[in-house]
Amino acid sequence: MAFLRSPSRDKWSMIVQSCGTPVELWCERVFMALTPEELARKTIDEALHQAGWDVQDVSHVNVNAAQGVAIREFPLKAGYGTADYLLYVNGKAAGALEAKKEGTTLSGVEIQTEKYSEGVPPALPAHVRPLPFLYQSTGVETFFTNRLDPEPRSRRLFHFHRPEILAEWLQAEPQAPGKPSTFRSRLRHLPPLQSEGLWAAQRTAVQNLEISFADDRPRALIQMVMGSGKTYTAITAIYRLIKYAKAHRVLFLVDRRNLGKQALQEFQQYTTPDDGRKFTELYNVQHLTSNTVDPVAKVVITTIQRLYSMLRGDAELDPALEEGSQFGTQAQVIDEPVGVVYNPPIPVEFFDCLFVDECHRSIYSLWRQVLEYFDAHIVGLTATPGKHTFGFFRRNLVMEYDHSHAVADGVNVDFEVYRIRTAITERGATIEAGPLTVVGKRDRETRALRWEKPDEDITYSARELDRSVVAVDQIQTVLETFKDKLFTELFPGRTEVPKTLIYAKDDSHADDIVRIVREVFGKGNDFAQKITYRTGTARIVEKVVGPDGTEMEQVTYKSTGIKPDDLLSAFRNSYNPRIVVTVDMLATGTDIRPLEIVMFMREVKSRSFFEQMKGRGVRIIDTNELQAVTPDATIKTHFVIVDAVGVCENDLQDTTPLERQSSVALESLLQQVAFGSTDRDVLSSLASRLSRLDKRLTTSQQDTIQDLAGGISLKDMSARLVNVLDPDWCAEEARKQYLQIGDTEPTEFQVQEATTTLIQEAVAPLATNATLRNHLVTLRHSIEQTIDETSADQLLAAGFSADAKERAQKIASAF
User: Fold this and answer.
1) What is the pLDDT of residue 814?
2) Kind of pairing between the strands at 133-137 and 92-99
3) pLDDT of amino acid 14
4) Rounded Cα–Cα distance for residues 297 and 299 (Å)
5) Mapped to the 3 state alphabet, what secondary structure does 203-264 carry?
6) Which end of the chain is less packed: N or C, by CB atoms within 10 Å?
7) Phi/psi of residue 675, each to 5°?
8) Pairing mode of beta strands 219-224, 397-401
9) What is the tens place of the pLDDT at every residue in 46-92?
């Protein structure tokens, strides 16, 4: 029953259900007697139909019935046999398709389709001889060869092409008499690159990429350090793909909406080297804010989240799902890709080339199949590739440009590491119980504070700092040291606090840091601000030209629909704030050129993540632009990493897909379910988290959840998830279901179908209810922190660390 296990089985469900017969029974009754080859052809027929082909028997042929006609069992001239399918486009033969049973390896079938392509009777009309478009398929796996390519080579397809695109390819300008050119042939004849306006590294990257294109390498990786102009490099390549290679449409893929906005701005500002006009004056560039692509768009910019939503056929996507990165602590990767099915409005040939920005985040797990859906070249852009990045791009690294080269070329500024060590940071502390000792207990949700006398000594480790325990003096000691050394050792001679970004452990920790920074520096609210995904109101500062022709600041406030760029505008463009505290919102892809200090008050385990966080400070900046926000700065020659936790001294790990979900935040687990994941590790971890959370809630809180969930308690949600992970329970439920319709015992297929349905029902209360998910995340943070105002911290050391700098420099080369 190969068909019953194949993806195309879902495609038949709608037809079968209209007959009033259960899908499983219909499939078994109708297809039980079919051979594997016949089952494969049923699948292939439906796939061709989905792609817009009219499938006909040879005895009832009408080649003009549709633009694309696929004729079964087509007789060829003597000695060439019978083609399983001959493909007609606009009334003329254009290709052939060989069908094989599921599981057949297809490389050995290529010669057979070549034979078909040469066996069309001479009296019959054909666009090109031999026929150019050759497919081999089992219904589950499909390969395609375009014999018009310079070096025809089979490639795997997610689905068949539409006849419209084959007709378009046949109408392309000729590369030789009677032989239309192809995208791949045109890639071999690009004109020399005009290098005006390009840095040397950008020029090399484009040239190497085009060599890779000419060699028909389907994937290529560009590794360029932050601030070296990866996006500008990509736009240069895209412009040449559209103008000279006649690319129909190019996708620029990001994983956060604000990065898409930045990319759009760069396209709008790009001046074409040969024409002199802006890119967007010549070609339409669309940054998707809905699930509809403008048919005239030559470049489409979108998040990978939205693209996945579009492939699923969703009418729209909640914009909030585009704000958070699919990397770092806000969203962890998962073990198993979520399946993608063919969506006719977005065919596999929809894009000729995909540029994947920050590809170290986007190519794993959930998103890999989104990229592989398209019959397109894939180009990755990243500063921090990991092992899996190299693997995905088949080790085709066309450009490697690291921080040291960028500094030497004046593209990046260098950095120094200043280390601050304190006793509590490294060892924790003990609060000794005594008649005068009191400790604070703070609710993390309400921030309500109460005081109590401890019954016994309270000992906490360094790892508990700012999680379950807040040591006020530890934060204060670090920040006072930072202030004391700022104008004597870090930036001697300066009087203005340089623009500083502090990375905190979580939102609560960030809040504590902001308040203590203001106190330590003796400044007001404007001086230091928190920017996280929980920030409620944005102060937006824009530079405008006043009536007298002078530049002035225009300030507006925004409380709804806030985007990261809104929160960052004042930090970039205005004198205040001088210090911004975040968790990981500004960790990746964010351009803050005036930044001169990056301070770590949280640990980082991932090499890639550390490099991205550190990379916020490497950007060069024009002196006038720098002095507009930091008046006493002369020139940005370097930036300083202030390391208060030893992050530059730790052994960092490559980012890899999780094998277990124990370290994944509840918020991420819920988001994965919302995106359609039914991975067993995700569901198991989620069941455990919900169960633990339920035990800590008050009756009132439990009732609120039950109301939000439509009458289902948190305990019941957890129990349902546990049940669907039990194969015996699922088998028993299948047995109950199918005994009701007369069967004696459910088949393996029926058990699988029942299990799929049960899992979907179990996750539905969470997957379909964003309000409930957000409420659960809020409740999860409602735990108490111990406030230690008793233990006095002690400064152990503060100074520039050559060893730490050397170690940090080696992190990138360790890739």
Assistant:
1) 56
2) parallel
3) 46
4) 6
5) HHHHHHHHHHHHCCCCEEEEEECCCCCHHHHHHHHHHHHHHCCCCCCEEEEECCHHHHHHHH
6) N
7) -80, 0
8) parallel
9) 999 999 999 999 999 999 999 999 999 999 999 999 999 999 999 99
Is residue 776 within 8 A of residue 705, CB to CB? The reply is yes
* pLDDT over 80 (residue 656): no
**C-alpha R_g of the chain:** 30
| DSSP H helices in 346-468 | 359-362, 368-372, 387-392, 403-408, 423-427
Give the position of tokens 């060699």: 215
Q: How confident is the model over 745-757, as pLDDT tens digits? A: 677 788 888 888 8
Q: How many CA atoms lie within 13 A of 802 on its CB side?
A: 0
CA–centroid distance for 229 within its chain: 20
* pLDDT for res 291: 95
What's the one-letter identity of residue 78? A
Angle at which helices 699-708 and 770-780 pack, to 10 degrees?
A: 160
Judged by DSSP in three states, 491 sits in coil
What average pLDDT is seen over the chain?
A: 84
> Cα separation of 227 and 812, whole Å?
15
Q: pLDDT digit string (tens) for 139-195?
A: 999 999 999 999 999 999 999 999 999 999 999 999 888 899 999 999 999 999 998
Task: Report d(CA 87, CA 70) in Å as an integer.
Answer: 5
DSSP letter (8 states) at residue 130: S
Cα 242 to Cα 240: distance, rounded to the nearest angstrom: 5
- The crossing angle, in degrees rounded to 10, of helices 666-674 and 680-695 is 130
Element (H, E) at 732: helix 727-739
Q: Are 68 and 53 in contact (CB under 8 A)?
A: yes
Instruction: Please give the Cα distance from 311 to 700 (Å, whole number).
Output: 41
Of 143, 133, 80, 72, nearest in space to 106 by CA? 143
Q: Kindly give, in sequence order, each residue whose CB lies less than 8 Å from that of residue 642, ignoring residues fewer than 6 positions away.
A: 418, 420, 482, 490, 597, 598, 599, 600
In this model, does residue 447 exceed pLDDT 80? no
Work out the number of other CB atoms within 10 angstroms of the CB of residue 547: 6
3-state secondary structure of 558: strand
Q: How far apart are CA 718 and CA 524, in angstroms?
A: 46
pLDDT digits (tens, 9 = 90+) for 626-648: 999 999 998 898 899 999 999 88
Q: Which residue has the tokens 């969930």?
A: 709
More confident of the two residues 719 and 94:
94
DSSP string, 586-607: TSSS---TT--EEEE-S---BH
3 state SS of 444: coil
- Residue of 338, 311, 453, 451 whose CA lies nearest to 767: 338
Would you give the distance in Å from CA 527 to the centre of its chain? 34
pLDDT at 327: 43
- The reported pLDDT for the residue numbered 9 is 46
pLDDT of residue 47: 97
**Integer CA distances (angstroms), 309 to 326, 339, 377, 764, in order:** 15, 12, 21, 17
**Strand 469-471 with 439-443, pairing:** unpaired
Tell me: cis bond preceding 130? Omega within 30 of 0 counts.
yes
Measure the CA–CA gap between 151 and 781, rounded to whole angstroms: 58
Which residues neighbour 9 within 8 Å (Cβ) at sequence distance 6 or greater?
3, 27
User: Residue 795: helix, strand or coil by DSSP?
Assistant: strand
Q: The tokens 């490697």 sit on which residue?
A: 400
Q: 394-408 as b/e, with b when 16 or more CB fall inside 10 Å?
A: eebbbbbbbbebbbe
Give the confidence band of 515 by pLDDT, cuts at 50, 70, 90: very high
Question: What number is the average pLDDT over the span 484-499?
Answer: 95
CA–CA separation, 244 and 324 (whole Å) = 36
Cα separation, 642 vs 482, in Å, equals 8
Closest CA to 87 of 138, 122, 48: 48
Distance CA 648, CA 6 (A): 50
Supply the DSSP symbol for 383: S
